[in-house]
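Appendix B. Extra example for self-study. Work through it before the problem class; the solution is given directly after the inputs so you can check yourself.
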Amino acid sequence: MSAPGDAGFLDRARQLLGADQLLTGDGLEAYELDWRKRYAGRALAVARPGTPAEVAALVRLCAEHRVSLVPQGGNTGLVGGGVPDGSGRQLLLSLRRLRQVRQVDRDNLTLCAEAGCLLAEVQAAAGAAGLLFPLSLGAEGSCTIGGNLATNAGGTQVLRYGNARELCLGLEVVTPQGEVWHGLCGLRKDNTGYDLRDLFIGSEGTLGVITAATLKLFPAPRATMTALAACPTLDAALALLGRARAGAGATLTGFELISRACLRLVQRHFPQIPQPLPDDAGAPWAVLLELSDHEDEAHARLLLERLLGDALEAGEAVDAAVAQSLAQAQQLWHLRESIPLAQSEEGLNIKHDIALPISAIPAFVKDCEAALQAHCPGVRLVCFGHLGDGNLHFNVQAPEGQDPAAFLREQEPAINALVYDRVLQRGGSISAEHGIGQLKREQLADSKDPVALRLMQTLKQALDPLGLMNPGRLLRRP
Amino acid sequence: MSAPGDAGFLDRARQLLGADQLLTGDGLEAYELDWRKRYAGRALAVARPGTPAEVAALVRLCAEHRVSLVPQGGNTGLVGGGVPDGSGRQLLLSLRRLRQVRQVDRDNLTLCAEAGCLLAEVQAAAGAAGLLFPLSLGAEGSCTIGGNLATNAGGTQVLRYGNARELCLGLEVVTPQGEVWHGLCGLRKDNTGYDLRDLFIGSEGTLGVITAATLKLFPAPRATMTALAACPTLDAALALLGRARAGAGATLTGFELISRACLRLVQRHFPQIPQPLPDDAGAPWAVLLELSDHEDEAHARLLLERLLGDALEAGEAVDAAVAQSLAQAQQLWHLRESIPLAQSEEGLNIKHDIALPISAIPAFVKDCEAALQAHCPGVRLVCFGHLGDGNLHFNVQAPEGQDPAAFLREQEPAINALVYDRVLQRGGSISAEHGIGQLKREQLADSKDPVALRLMQTLKQALDPLGLMNPGRLLRRP
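Solution. Structure tokens for the complete assembly:
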């Protein structure tokens, strides 16, 4: 559905990339429909450049023809940030062909990868050198490192290693003017001017296109030890977190919170998954702890058993199970990772990816749950997440027996307001790790500090004065 | 030496702050002369606001009167970034009265401090809560946390904990328009828009004024163990670094490189400082290792002794001394920290605070040393620094018996060019931790990637269109 003026643009883009790499017409749903199937867009064309120079030339062509563009990696985003709008006038810029791991530097503990490398490929390249790239998340087999950086992805190891931003040392970026910033610095220390890197990371393609990155690697730990502990209260879970941090330091690489309601949901839909903690202990919370040790398995086991023993004695835990094998450890993680799937089996629900100061979590959960029950008696809270990072997946499910679709339709705005108001009151974030995209753009505009919002708009206007880089994502169109 | 139009400005500033807190006239050297005594400026006045609101009002007043301002913390910077120029028309904005530690949140592991708090005060406030704020550097008794953040300070624990940027979660900033951005977020995860925090950190007061920060704290380690090892080559020192990282993980908190020439210089000027490694081992390099352990001293000692034993066996070290007491550990650090003082005793020299990919360091040092000797036979290299971060203090001293002042005067430009060219060829940085200020502004303009430089100028122009925030520092005046 292209306008007449687009023909010249498409011809030139085809010339630039070769006809094979400029896709038009039907059958482009893999690029146009987002992973959660909430946003079905329509692209002018899908461009698949093969080099950073082709990306730059394409961006210059877009600027010349005033065609806006939407960068896309693995199309696994959860907020509609990487799919075109419905106008049929936006160019979908797929980075998937930029797929080279350019360098692994073992002594410098760095790896340079192009934007279209899958996260799992980056992990594998590090592993092949006997090293660890610790970014890890559910979509790692299909998301790209470029997308991870554009959205500052989180995942399960943030507690120890930080978000994608903390794992990146340098970037190669095509600016909205189609210039290439060669910033693939592999340095731990570089105080030569403003931090451009962190400005592009997390900007969701609205300030430029990341084409490659230099990433931090780490020595691989020699042993990993996992346990599940039952906690009588959220305060007890927090005390256990403090104890684990003090006693294990950076050896603590995972501390995941799981409510008993989550465990029951998994039990209901996936009864074959072993549940090592009986449901009769009266503990409404469980935590999954992981230690990653640089000595050996015996040392890690001793450390974990001592920690849990002390926690049991202090009443911070009432029961605990330490995985006795790699298989058992994987089962515990599988249990944790099956929660979203079990929730899907239960039907549609209202999801919140929130962060809070860790100290504020017990009061927040108590207050918010009471308010939800008052608002909608019988509503079910499915609360789990990365307690060590203050990041909760705070999902709300229809009361038992009610139609989930109707619940979502009727209750989403009110329940979002109820939850987000309480998050913001306590200095929290309405998007901990998923970003803003289209889904939370209006909520951001309504809730962000007004000075911060003006600063962001100023930056957008200064760097992308034509407004062609992923417009309407993250920030409202001006 | 104020111009007639300044009188109205000074009257209003006096009204705003009270006469006591607006200093004019003579006797202001403590604010006008930089710590290294390289830049002697002259301020229109020294303003000492007592609250962030006063800072904001002052910035608005400056904007109205087109008075440029220079923010200053402890005035310990090494690149002339915090002192006024010689015009007598710039307002020196001292942040030293913003001195409150606003909050310590033990469960969230955060501390909120105002910009004028001394780094040592922040460390002490964390320590009083049984926690650690790990930023640590020579000037900690007189530098401020605001200055540390404005310059993205480094120090001795970067290997484990990162630079100032990595230790900060949120900021309160007065913008060039005199608005207050309330960004004192204490969250580990917050993907709600562009990373404004990291844009202000390291911007050296050219984009706004940091008035407070929320900082990351860590559980204090339970034992620290320190050793000095003699290495036969730089490659061997690198191999030892790799071994220590793989075997100790994040327990490794220090890995400092010291050349034998540095040790001899300390021996010459401070013969009372014990030197545990004899000078006859034929090893031209030493490294200072530090482990910080969350278990206990026995565990740390075992780990360190095992590491060093394996390194000796592998030939990565030829001798090693483990500190047997806290006093001995402090002596080892004292030895390391006496190098700059010993060098001062030896006379003026040409300093370089550089960073390189760690893997490039052996070849860089060899090549650069040969080129220096060819350029100026007998020249003495004083090379030490944070090997684990790729950060070298690569200082060049006159040949024995030559006049140091004449050497500095005659050789500085040529030797800077010789060193920096080789740093840049290998993807290094001309300022690892000290920043740019006035000292390296021209070098930055000449050597930075041109696209990066344009992006920085665009950001400066967008955020500070009147050009009143610390003009001529970091970037050239337009």
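Self-check: The mean pLDDT of chain B is 95. If your reasoning did not lead you there, revisit section 3.
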